[in-house]
Design a protein that fits this description.
Rossmann fold; about 50% helix; single chain; 5-stranded parallel sheet
């Protein structure tokens, strides 16, 4: 099984947390693609956004699952797009939201994102437990 790790990646903390998500998935035997880690360094250095986009879309297409870092006041717009694309492709979607802030007392994150997820977890430990059970099923 392969998982695309979606999430903001614009500072060290965001990239670190995305890598923690990947680590938990890899612990249970899921192969991961983390864009800033596994994408082409040459494309990033060149700033070739068209080819970076194509590379990330192809990576989502190759994966059976998308695990998304949803932390923050709002979900990162790129992450939201990746989830929408993956949803349309019928991928299994898992959201990770460890943030204490809630969007609304009846929802944890934006309702369109929350309702598209197969599972929403509130910690890395909960993610690992869910993935372990999911891969055994």
């Amino acid at each position: 099984m392969r998982a695309y790790i979606a999430g903001p990646l614009f500072n060290e903390g965001e990239r670190w947390f995305d890598e923690q998500i990947a680590d938990r998935a890899e612990r249970v035997g899921i192969e991961t693609f983390v864009p800033h880690r596994d994408g082409s360094a040459t494309l990033r250095e060149q700033g070739d956004v068209v080819r970076i986009f194509a590379e990330d879309v192809a990576a989502i297409d190759r994966c059976e699952m998308v695990i998304a870092n949803l932390n923050g006041v709002t979900t990162d717009d790129g992450t939201a797009w990746e989830l929408g694309y993956a949803y349309a492709k019928g991928k299994h979607l898992v959201g990770v939201y460890t943030d204490m802030r809630l969007q609304h007392h009846l929802q944890i994150v934006n309702l369109m994102i929350e309702c598209s997820l197969h599972q929403l977890v509130r910690s890395l430990d909960e993610l690992e437990t869910y993935l372990r059970e999911y891969t055994r099923a």
